[in-house]
From TrEMBL:
Family: Belongs to the glutamine synthetase family.
Pfam families: Gln-synt_C (PF00120)
Enzyme class name: ligase
Keyword set includes Cytoplasm: yes
Organism of this sequence: Acrobeloides nanus
Keyword Nucleotide-binding set for record: yes
Record-listed E.C. numbers: 6.3.1.2
Domain GS catalytic positions: 1-180
MF term (GO), any: ATP binding
Top-level taxonomy: Eukaryota, Metazoa, Ecdysozoa, Nematoda, Chromadorea
Protein name (database record): glutamine synthetase
Length: 180
């Protein structure tokens, strides 16, 4: 609803709202849709244990979640989740208390109180927040597999080429050792 209202207001001023997670290239993190999530059990005493269990489930399903966390099935987040500058890396999912580099952050007050919520920092600004909520619930509460998986084809090809070059380099070293 808030996005709808934003678009209506911007029309009044002849401007356009854009939710691209990283509209301009450069050395900055981009725009995310950090999503706070909790269940009743997480908010009760001893809920911190449940929060950590939820984080483990989210870590195990990282690539599946990325496919739902932006409007381009993960491709927009490649520009934003660069690791460093306070942004988590797209290559791995981590969690931690008050960690600005973690994919999933647990606020300090939550740790202190032993209950509360977690903050998933991976969704991009152009995500569908209802879809993000759905996939978190499917993973954390329902223990269901998701139907999409994020695969960065250029990155995958680069990683395969690096492996190939490492093998070739190893073979060349072996030949050089044999010739000496």
């Amino acid at each position: 609803m808030s996005r709808f209202l934003l678009h209506r207001v911007t029309e009044q001023f002849d401007v356009i709202a854009n939710f691209d997670p990283k509209l301009l290239p450069g050395d900055w993190c981009g725009a995310g849709c950090h999503t706070n999530f909790s269940t009743e059990a997480m908010r009760k005493p001893g809920g911190l244990k449940i929060i950590f269990e939820a984080c483990e489930k989210l870590v195990k399903n990282h690539s599946q979640h990325l496919a739902y966390y932006d409007a381009s099935e993960g491709k927009d987040n490649i520009k934003r989740l660069v690791g460093g500058m306070g942004a988590p890396s797209i290559n791995e999912c981590t969690y931690g208390v008050m960690s600005r580099s973690a994919s999933i952050r647990i606020p300090l007050l939550v740790e202190k109180n032993g209950c509360g919520y977690l903050e998933d920092r991976r969704p991009a600004a152009n995500c569908d927040p209802y879809l993000v909520t759905e996939v978190i619930i499917r993973t954390v509460c329902l223990n269901r597999k998701l139907s999409r998986d994020f695969v960065d084809e250029p990155l995958k090809k680069l990683q395969e080429r690096i492996k190939q070059l490492e093998i070739e380099n190893s073979e060349l070293k072996d030949k050089a050792t044999q010739n000496t």
